[in-house]
C-alpha cells in the first residue's frame, strides 16, 4: 500500500531563554482562548533535528541511546529516531503572557516546531480502571458548565440492568480540568439534592435575576 504525504503546519515553536516556553504564531493566537495558568496540556512536537532519510529508516534502537540496552522497536520506545519524528509531552502551564505559554523544562531543542496543543484529560490520556467504557458514554449529550464537563451514560438497554442497584450503576462522568470522577445514580441524586439546597439558600435578589435570565418575559 502506498501512503500519500500530507502537510503539517507548525502552530508555534519551543523557546528557551532561561525559561522554557511555547511561542504561538500570531495567526493561531485565538486558539489559546480557554487555556489557563495551571492547566495541564499535551504538546505534539516535530523533532526536526531527527528528520533525515537515514533516521526515518531506523526501526530499532537501544533505549535511552545506551548500547547496553537490547535493541527494541522504536514504537516501544520514546526515541526521537522514528519514521515520523513526533514527540508528545504532558506539561503544566505555569503562566500565560500574550502568545507565550511558560512551562517546565522539557528536553526539546530551541526552535523545535509545535504541531498541536491539546488539553490533557485523565479519562483519555491517563486511563486506569475505567468504570464506564467510552462507547457507553453519551458524548453528544455532554454539557460543559464553567470548568466542569458532564458526560452522561447512554440510556439505551437499561432494561438489561434491572439487577443493578442505584449504588452500583455509574451514571455520570465528571471532568474538572484533567481530573475525572464517576458518580453512581445514587450519588447523582444526592448531588442534585445538594445543588437544590445551595440554590435555595441564594439571596432572593439573585434568584430573581436568574429567573429573568432564563425566562425574561
Automatic annotation (TrEMBL):
Assigned keywords, A-Z: Methyltransferase, S-adenosyl-L-methionine, Transferase
GO MF, any single term: methyltransferase activity
One family name in Pfam for this protein: TrmO_N
One BP annotation, GO: methylation
CDD domains, sorted: UPF0066
Domain TsaA-like: 8-129
Similarity remark: Belongs to the tRNA methyltransferase O family.
NCBIfam families on file: tRNA_TsaA
Name of the protein described by the UniProt record: Virulence protein
Amino acid at each position: 500500500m502506498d501512503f500519500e504525504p500530507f502537510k503539517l503546519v507548525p502552530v508555534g515553536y519551543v523557546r528557551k531563554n532561561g525559561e522554557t516556553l511555547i511561542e504561538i504564531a500570531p495567526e493561531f493566537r485565538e486558539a489559546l482562548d480557554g487555556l489557563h495558568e495551571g492547566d495541564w496540556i499535551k504538546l505534539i512536537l516535530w523533532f526536526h533535528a531527527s528528520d533525515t532519510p537515514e533516521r526515518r529508516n531506523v526501526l530499532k534502537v537501544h533505549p535511552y541511546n545506551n548500547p547496553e540496552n537490547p535493541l527494541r522497536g522504536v514504537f516501544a520506545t520514546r526515541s526521537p529516531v522514528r519514521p515520523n519524528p513526533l514527540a508528545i509531552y504532558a506539561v503544566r502551564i505555569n503562566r500565560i503572557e500574550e502568545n507565550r505559554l511558560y512551562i517546565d523544562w522539557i528536553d526539546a531543542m530551541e526552535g523545535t516546531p509545535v504541531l498541536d496543543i491539546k488539553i490533557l484529560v485523565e479519562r483519555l490520556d491517563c486511563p486506569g480502571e475505567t468504570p464506564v467504557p467510552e462507547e457507553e458514554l453519551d458524548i453528544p449529550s455532554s454539557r460543559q458548565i464553567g470548568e466542569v464537563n458532564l458526560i452522561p451514560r447512554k440510556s439505551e438497554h437499561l432494561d438489561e440492568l434491572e439487577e443493578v442497584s442505584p449504588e452500583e450503576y455509574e451514571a455520570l462522568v465528571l471532568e474538572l480540568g484533567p481530573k475525572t470522577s464517576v458518580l453512581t445514580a445514587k450519588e447523582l441524586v444526592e448531588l442534585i439534592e445538594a445543588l437544590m439546597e445551595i440554590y435555595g439558600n441564594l439571596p432572593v435578589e439573585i434568584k430573581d435575576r436568574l429567573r429573568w435570565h432564563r425566562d425574561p418575559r
